[in-house]
Design brief:
This protein is of the alpha/beta class. It is built from 10 helices and 7 strands. A 7-stranded parallel sheet has the order 3-2-1-4-5-6-7, sandwiched between helices.
């Protein structure tokens, strides 16, 4: 069933080049979707697009600085001109920001760098895609948030703030677009295996005087399922939220974190 679910549909994915973005892109390709893949690093995106084409998808790459309103508007219009519609928007693009600073150590440049990608970029893509969905009275938006937008996190104040902002944008857009048949939801990953998570392990290990292996064990031990999510776990959740099986779900947050937010754990790994 999943293989045919998105056949004939057009999915716009921001940040598709690596990690969960790549996994989400290829999952939609396997499910039959046509793909508009957007971001600044078109060389990296072309590699994923080539993989999607092998799977039978009409995958096209569009360059856009997602923090630039004019570039986002042009990218959306090119997608609509080439494909005729956008059925699903998936906002994956995001950055982590500094990993070892307190709020008062952050610079204004740190703040702008995180907010421009994580919040402004998502706002702009929704701003320019939603009118076309509203006009067709059909569409799904799936934003990628994070569990630090539900609990907060020490040494991640700006990143956490950006993920809290996505909750407000998602819920408000769901209320505004819902009467026009458009659903807007948020998938909130916890820690996800990959280079970004490895960087968190290294940074935390350096701060608390432990090894990365000890920090990993700490993270795993603070998940109810005792494991770290994979990119494919997130992709499965996104496809569910984008598909017909979730047609009556909107304005919601689907947390994919192996149960980490359920655990009463300390805010940081204690130093030796």
């Amino acid at each position: 069933m999943q293989h045919e679910e998105f056949r004939g549909k057009v999915v716009l994915v921001t940040g598709p080049a690596k990690g969960m973005g790549r996994a989400i892109t290829l999952a939609f390709a396997r499910a039959g979707a046509g793909l508009s893949l957007a971001g600044r690093d078109t060389a990296a995106i072309e590699g994923v697009a080539a993989e999607a084409r092998v799977l039978g998808s009409d995958a096209r790459v569009y360059r856009a600085d997602l923090a630039d309103g004019a570039e986002v508007a042009a990218m959306v219009q090119r997608t609509l001109a080439d494909f005729g519609a956008i059925d699903v928007l998936v906002n994956v693009a995001g950055v982590s920001g500094p990993l070892r600073k307190t709020l008062w150590e952050h610079t204004e440049d740190d703040y702008d760098a995180v907010m421009d990608v994580n919040v402004r970029g998502l706002f702009l893509t929704m701003k320019h895609v939603l009118p076309a969905m509203v006009a067709r009275r059909s569409g799904r938006v799936v934003n990628i948030g994070g569990t630090y937008g539900t609990t907060g996190k020490d040494y991640r104040s700006i990143y956490s703030a950006s993920k809290w902002a996505l909750r407000g944008l998602t819920k408000s857009a769901a209320l505004e677009a819902g009467p026009h048949g458009v659903g807007v939801n948020l998938v909130c990953p916890g820690s996800v295996e990959g280079p970004r998570f490895e960087g968190v392990l290294e940074a935390t290990a350096g701060r608390v005087g432990r090894t990365p292996e000890e920090v990993r064990a700490f993270y795993e031990g603070n998940c109810a399922l005792r494991r770290i999510s994979t990119d494919e776990d997130i992709a499965d959740a996104v496809l569910f939220m984008a598909g017909e099986r979730s047609r009556n779900i909107t304005g919601q947050e689907l947390v994919v974190d192996a149960g980490s937010v359920l655990m009463a754990y300390p805010p940081a790994m204690p130093p030796r």
